[in-house]
Every structure is written in C-alpha cells, then in structure tokens.
Amino acid sequence: MKTGKLDWKSMMSIISLLPLDDVDVVMGPSQGEDAAVIRVRDGFLVIHSDPITTGVKHAGYLSVHVAGNDIAVRGVKPKWFIPVVLLPSYFNEAEVLEFFKDMSRALGEIGGVVVGGHTEITPSINRPIVSMTAAGYTASRVIFTRDAKVGDLVYIVGRIAGEGVGVIAWDFEKLLFEKNVDKVFIENAKKYIYDVSVINVALEIKDYVNAVHDATEGGVLQALREVAVASNTRIVAYREKMVLDKTVDVITKAVNVDPLKLLSSGCIVATVPQRNKREFEETLENLGKEYSLVGYVERGNGEVVVINGSNIEVLKEDIIDEIYKLWR
C-alpha cells in the first residue's frame, strides 16, 4: 500500500466494519472533518487523535499543537490531552526526558493538561511515534468543515509548509548542507517548528467563517481538497496567490519537494462569506498574522481546481505528503 494516510475509499471500507451509531454523536468519522463532536448535557465535547510519525526532533512538541489545532478549528479551545508515546530502543534516559520536556513546553503555551496516556520503548521502530488525543468543551457554536458554502472566499492563513521545512531542517540537516543550503536558512527553518499552533488565530476568527481546516499531512492542497470533499463543493485556487516564505522556497527547492503538498501545521484554510471579508481580514491584521485570499468556493463534487498561469490542475485524489520522499 502507499505511504501516508490511507485513501478515503480504503477508510470507508474500514469504517464500515465499526459500530458508529449513537444518539449523542453529532459528528463521527468523516473525510475532512477535524474532530469528533459529542453532545454532553448542555454542550459539546470535541475530541481528536493525531499521530506524529514523520519527525524525530521535537515530535513531543509537535504532537500537542497538531492535535490541539484540530480542536481549535472547530472553534473550541483544547484543554485535555492523552499522549501514547512509542520510543525506539536507542533512546537513552536523557533523550526520553527531553522528549517530554518538549511536550510540556507546548502544553504550557496553550494551557493544556495531560489526563492520561501510555509510554513504552519499542525495538521495532527507528524513530519516535506519538499519537496524541486532544479534547475541549463548548456550550456554543461548533464549526464543521462541511459548512463551506458556494460563494465563500477561500483564504490561507499562516506560513505554508513551515512545519515541513522545520522537520527537514532538524532531521535532514546533513542533506541540506550537501545541497549547499546556507546555514541561515536552515537555522530559520528550525525556528518554524515552534510556530505550528493555530489555536489563538482559529478562536479569534471563528465568528467570521463558515469552515476552517488546518493544513497538516498533504499540505495546503490536501486541506483544500478535504474542505471541498466535506462540503461537496469545488474550490478554485490560484497557485500564484499562495505566497511562500523565502526560507520555505529555498529549502523545498533544494530537496525537490512541493511546498503546497508538505506538512503545514500552523497554516489553516478558511472559507469566509463575502459579507465578513472586512472583519475577517481586520482580525488577522490585528493579530499580525499573514494571510492570502487564494480563491473561492463554487458548485462541484469535491474537486480542487488549481490555476497556475495557463496551466490548470484538477485534484480528485488525496495527496501523499512530500516529506515521505525524504524518509524513503
């Protein structure tokens, strides 16, 4: 089978084997939806699990923010965390402690607490694997990816591929030096690992959006596709409007990966009713957050149309993240 996430057809076959129906489940497994939503008394419990399998350095830190982001894009603050951590046998005690110090740092940044979990040394793996479950509670609106509407404006908020080049800088530094990448760009990229949270931004813009989706595995193009599929619409996006940071551009070109298909935690896709355009943009400007208006939503059946000058690409399949090229 292919590396990375299972395609949705395979997932549907798996999901069909599992019990799913419950009167209190508002949102269960569904493509493009970031987190489960469960009715609890007068509010909703929002919960999600996400693995970190493609990073070594700072995987503990990333696990908190990547899982927490999936709660925040629902318009809910993540609070409770349950890590399942598998560490390779070559890790020594100091490396184990460093792993959890990184996790603690991330939790402190967002006010999260650990409420359980599991840790073990596993000789069958060659790098850390952590699956983090995050949860939050709200008594107000929950945002769904399926709620993107025809006529919405499509924005990308945050640094495209920042997480991806951060992972590359930490885990493939030797390769970058071999490709003659200037040390300044490598050191810049390493800092991007600490800029992967969308929690504050997502909570600030929640009143102005129809849908929000974070760009993780498969990058911004996969995030756009998941919004289109979940909402049964077509997204038209202009590649030249997807502005790349200089460091991202240099590093992705050096290792021959597409930044639009690369790990992008810290970056979100938002669909915004035209009537909310001004308030949405003003909120981001007040936060000092970069954003680009890259396209719009129209009638369709889950496609993403990427226009690049005279070239038009129609995405109808899930994207395999470019980071796996390097691990292979």
Explain what the structure shows:
- There is one protein chain.
- With about 325 residues, the chain is α+β, with helices and mostly antiparallel strands.
- It folds into 2 domains: about 10-140, PurM-like, N-terminal domain (60s Ribosomal Protein L30, Chain: A), CATH 3.30.1330; about 145-325, Phosphoribosyl-aminoimidazole Synthetase, Chain A, domain 2 (Alpha-Beta Complex).
- It is about 35% helix and about 25% strand.
- The chain contains 11 helices and 14 strands.
- The protein has helices at about 10-15, 60-70, 95-110, 160-170, 175-180, 185-190, 200-205, 220-230, 245-255, 275-285, 325; strands at about 25, 35-40, 45-50, 80-85, 115, 120, 130-140, 155, 210-215, 235-240, 270, 290-300, 305-310, 310-315.
- The strands form 2 sheets. Strands 1, 2, 3, 4, 5, 6 and 7 form a 7-stranded mixed beta sheet that branches. Strands 9-11-8-12-10-13-14 form a 7-stranded mixed beta sheet, with helices on both faces.
- β4, α3 (about 95-110) and β5 form a beta-alpha-beta unit.
- The longest helix is centred in the first third of the chain and has 18 residues, at about 95-110.
- The two termini are about 15 Å apart.
- The model has no long low-confidence stretch (mean pLDDT about 95).
